[in-house]
Design goal:
Blueprint lengths: L27 E9 L11 E9 L10 E10 L6 H7 L1 E2 L3 E5 L3 H13 L10 E5 L14 H10 L17 E2 L2 E2 L1 E9 L2 E10 L7 E2 L2 E2 L18 E8 L5 H17 L9 E8 L29 H21 L3 E2 L5 E2 L4 H8 L2
Parallel strand pairs: 5-6, 13-14
Antiparallel strand pairs: 1-2, 2-5, 3-4, 3-14, 7-8, 9-10, 10-13, 11-12, 15-16
Helix pairs in contact: 2-3, 4-5
C-alpha cells in the first residue's frame, strides 16, 4: 500500500493519474528483483537481497533521441556514471539504471550491449546510479548480471510502478526502516513532474512526515540498524515541461529540499545525487558518431520566471516518493539474519493524527 491509501497526503499539489514518474508521458520503469538464500553471509553465494531498476525516459530510443538533462549532488559519497557528458553537453543519451554499489560496472556494460543491439556504434555514456545494500545483501558477491538488466529493460512499462523492496531498492534501508524504491508526481500549470527515488539514507530519530517528527514516536524496532546516516539516496526527476539543461539542473537541486523535509541531511557517508531530464524537446540532434547532424535546430524553453511551481512540485513529489518507499517496503530478513522492520502505514497515519 502507498501513503495515500493510508490517508497520508503529502503537501497540497495535484498528483498525476498514477502518482508516479510514469505520469510523464512515455516514461517507463522496469525492475528485476533478486531474493534468495538465508542465514550467514557467504561471499558469492548469498543471501541475496538486491536487483536493478531501469528507467526509459521516453517511448523511443534515448540512444538516438537524447534529452536535455541536469545533475546535482547534495553529498558526493556516491556514484552516477555518465556525469561528465551531462555536465558538458546537458544531454541524457541513455536509459537510466539504479542498482547496488558493487554492480555499477556490470549494469553499465549491459546498457552498452543494449545500445549496440540497436545497430549503431556504442557512443553514449550510460547512466547508472547506486546505493549500498551491504547490510541485507551479499554485496561483494556481485549477483546482478547482464541478463537482469536486459530483463528490467524489456519489461519496463508505464502506469503504476512497483515500490518498496523491488529492483535496485530490494536491499535498501531508509531512516532505520526497510527502504527501497518510491515514486510520486505532481501536475502544475499543464506540466507533469515525476520523481523516483532509491531510498537508502537517513536516521530514524530524524524521520519527518508532513512536518511532524515521527521517528521518535514510532515503536522501536526489535533490532536497531547500525550506522544510521551512512547511506545514500538517488533521485530521478522527469518532466514534460520544455526545460533547458540549466533549468533541469535547478529542478534536480530541489529534490534535496524534499529529502530535507523528511529529515535527510546529506550526512558525511551519504551519497545523495539527483538527475532531472525533460521530454519537452524531442528534436535534439542524435549523439551518434555517424548521425547527420543539422547545423542549427530549434527548441522550446520555459521562461525562468515561470519555473517556481515546478520547484514546488519536485519538493513535494520527492517527499512523497520517500514516504511511499517506506510504507511499501515490508520487513525483511537478510544476510547474517539481520531483520529490518518495515514501516507500517497504518501506524504512521495514527502517529500523524495523535
Amino acid at each position: 500500500m502507498r501513503a495515500r491509501e493510508h490517508g497520508i497526503v503529502i503537501g497540497t499539489g495535484t498528483t498525476g493519474p498514477h502518482n508516479a514518474i510514469t505520469d510523464v508521458a512515455g516514461v517507463r520503469v522496469g525492475h528485476t528483483t533478486l531474493i534468495s538464500g538465508e542465514g550467514p553471509r557467504v561471499t558469492g553465494q548469498g543471501p541475496v537481497r538486491t536487483g536493478v531498476t531501469v528507467i526509459l525516459p521516453h517511448d523511443g530510443s534515448t540512444f538516438d533521441e537524447p534529452l536535455y538533462a541536469g545533475l546535482h549532488w547534495l553529498n558526493g559519497c556516491g556514484e552516477i556514471t555518465g556525469m561528465p557528458i551531462i555536465e558538458e553537453f546537458g544531454m541524457l543519451t541513455s536509459p537510466i539504471a539504479l542498482t547496488n554499489t558493487a554492480s555499477v560496472g556490470v549494469v553499465r556494460d549491459a546498457l552498452v550491449e543494449l545500445e549496440v543491439a540497436t545497430g549503431r556504434p556504442a557512443w553514449s555514456q550510460p547512466v547508472v546510479g547506486e546505493t549500498w545494500d551491504g547490510r541485507l545483501n551479499d554485496i561483494s558477491g556481485q549477483h546482478v548480471r547482464r541478463e537482469h538488466v536486459h530483463q528490467a529493460y524489456r519489461e519496463a512499462s508505464g502506469g503504476p510502478v512497483a515500490e518498496g523492496s523491488v529492483g535496485g531498492g530490494t536491499g535498501m534501508i531508509c531512516h532505520g526502516f526497510k527502504g527501497g524504491i518510491g515514486t510520486a508526481s505532481r501536475v502544475v500549470d499543464g506540466y507533469t513532474v515525476g520523481v523516483l527515488v532509491q531510498a537508502n539514507h537517513g536516521r530514524r530519530d530524524r524521520l519527518t512526515v508532513n512536518g511532524v517528527n515521527v521517528g521518535t514516536r514510532l515503536p522501536a524496532p526489535a533490532e536497531p540498524v547500525a550506522h544510521e546516516g551512512a547511506g545514500s539516496i538517488i533521485g530521478i526527476v522527469a518532466t514534460d515541461a520544455p526545460l533547458l539543461p540549466h533549468q533541469c539542473k535547478r529542478l534536480a537541486q530541489r529534490a534535496g529540499l524534499g529529502i530535507a523535509r523528511t529529515g535527510g541531511a546529506g550526512e558525511n557517508f551519504s551519497g545523495d545525487g539527483f538527475l532531472c531530464f525533460s521530454t519537452g524537446n524531442r528534436n535534439l540532434p542524435s549523439a551518434a558518431l555517424d548521425s547527420n547532424t543539422p547545423r542549427t535546430y530549434q527548441v522550446t524553453a520555459l521562461s525562468d520566471e515561470y519555473i517556481d511551481p515546478l520547484f514546488y512540485a519536485v519538493i513535494e513529489a520527492t517527499e512523497e516518493a520517500i514516504v511511499n518507499a517506506l510504507v511499501a517496503a515490508e520487513t525483511m530478513t537478510g544476510a547474517d539474519d539481520l531483520t529490518v522492520t518495515g514501516l507500517d502505514g497504518a501506524t504512521l497515519a495514527k502517529v500523524l493524527t495523535t
